[in-house]
Every structure is written in structure tokens, then in C-alpha cells.
């Protein structure tokens, strides 16, 4: 997989998200989340989790499966796809290096028979109450595991060469209190490498004097979280940058 956002490659969860959005089961503006975030997104949009009867699920075409225990299915720990009939699934998978149709129980067995969760649109009986909404913006972003910047234009408040790297500081992006001096700690934690941005105000990219910018990478995985500072960390041009979770959520 080179890019989970298509159109030439996906992963298991992004392919399900795009299918649900295309079918009108999720709103167009819904973020393309991961396997862990899929639980909540399904429950918020009319999908209900089915109960097994004597260890057996009476699956139908259109049902969605999620493998793994809720709370620990992010990344390779979980898997998801859609039933095309009672027994077979369509899913994006590593084993076949693409999107294939396979017998569910066969593939499930090959993968060690993880916990099965089945969701059906508008049917079934919920097995547990809906989770409480996130208590803060860091936890909200943690559900999705990524930031989509939507080509947002961000204001530059300072720029310098710090530890040999040309960087900018944006107070709104970082959640910093405006001041006349950017500290070394702020440059270390919140400095954005110019190698990962493009000026949005017409300034030539060969210049270091831009006043506003966009990130070159519009979707970024979140690599760290800090609730006390309302911070989440992303990688920009190979460097870890802490940004304000509220600003990222509203991007």
C-alpha cells in the first residue's frame, strides 16, 4: 500500500470508509478513519452491532465485520470489510495485495480467529451502550489517528534557522500565547520545517519570508498525544511537530 486515500491504493479501513460514503451511509465530510474509529462512526450513523447466536452470526450482504477487541484494533491489530453474501467478504488485504472477495471463515481462520464484530444498517440489537463523546479534543483526534488539513492557510508568526533547520512558528497552529520572543523550547517542539510547507501568500518558495503557508502533506498520521497541553504530534518533513488539537480538529 502506497497511499490509503486512493485512488490507486487503500487499506482495509479506508476502503470501507470510502464505500460507506459513496453509498450514502456516512456523510461526505466524514473523516477517513481507521479500524478503531469505525466502531463509533457506524454506531453514530444508524448501524447496530449484532449478537451471535450459539457462537454463530447470521450474516447478510452489506453487513460489516471488524476483527479485534474494541479499543485495540488500530493499525495491523484489526481488520475490516463488507459481506457480499452470507459467507463471503470483500476486503482490502495484505495477503492478496489488493481488494479481493474471499470466504470469511477461511480468511478468519488463517488470521488466528480474532474476535468478530458484525454491524448491520438499521437492524440487530446493540450489545453495549454507545460510548461517551470524547472529553477533550486530544481524545477526539485520538479516535481517528490522523489530521486532515483541507489545504488550510496558516499564519506565520516567526521564522528562523534552528539547529540547522529553517522553520516557522504559528501561534494558532501550536496553541502558543503570542509573544515578542520564541523560546528554544517552542522552536524544538512547535517549529515547522519549511521543507514541509508551501507559502500561501504568493511568496516564492525559494524565499524564507512568507506570511502564510499550507502543509505540503494534507493528511498526516498522529504520532503522539498530550492531554494536559491539548497537543498532538505529527511528522513534517521527517520531524516531529506538536500542534494544537483544537486547531487540528477544526481544520
UniProtKB/TrEMBL annotation:
It comes from the Bacteria. GO terms for molecular function: cysteine-type peptidase activity. Residues 1-122 form the NlpC/P60 domain. InterPro entries: Lytic_exo_TRD_sf, NLP_P60_dom, Papain-like_cys_pep_sf, Phage_lysin. GO terms for biological process: proteolysis. Keywords: Hydrolase, Protease, Thiol protease. Belongs to the peptidase C40 family. This is Phage lysin, N-acetylmuramoyl-L-alanineamidase. It comes from Melissococcus plutonius (strain ATCC 35311 / DSM 29964 / CIP 104052 / LMG 20360 / NCIMB 702443).
